[in-house]
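Fold this sequence, please.
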Amino acid sequence: MGLHLMYYEMGEMWDKVPRPDSVETVGERTAASAEEPKLPEIPESKRAEFEAMRAKLNASLLRASRVLSDWAVASRELLVCSAFMRFLEKKHDVQVVERLLGKYQLRLRLTEICAEHPGFSLDDAADALTDALRYVVLLSGESYSGVVRLWVRDMRINGYALDRVENRWPQRRGIVTVWLTPHRRAFQVHFHTADSYESACVFDKFGAVDEATTTAAPVPHAADTLDLSRSDEAQ
């Protein structure tokens, strides 16, 4: 059934891709490509289970779309982005990558949260979601700690509340912060150097950071002791 669900998903995504009104065909179809591939029929004993799984996929995709719509209301995502752009105008050694996740990425996150919390509904997972909007801020190692302090200070001045901080130096590298907008929408800001971002990507993909990558991502001065949860630390 996994193959059938994958085929269904690919078809659903393909239907969302804009295509031209007509396509010019070059050459003749060969015997190898003359017949469309077909999956074997789902056994009748598995049909109800398949339909339930497909309905669950559709429901989670719909909930992910609602998360995106919530961020679009009153241009909430653009307001956060504007605050970032104002800060970037002050600092020329800062780069921001990644922003609002796509609906298929969001559906995966909702599914992961439900798996981590048995009994959670999709609405519960959406309420617990903090990384639908996620910024990764890349800083130079020399100015890392000072710029992070300034960034946190400016975010607070602009009306954003720092909800949670996870300082991952030196094990996983980087600092992950969770912020609340004035409308109580949660989003994440990750502070990295270019090397630590690479280490974090390796960890997220493989579950561990190899020795070579760890060595290539030195800890910026005072980054591992930076305590942003204290308001006086961000002044």
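The helical segments are 2-14, 44-72, 76-90, 103-116, 122-128, 144-157, 194-206, 211-215. The chain has a mean pLDDT of 79.
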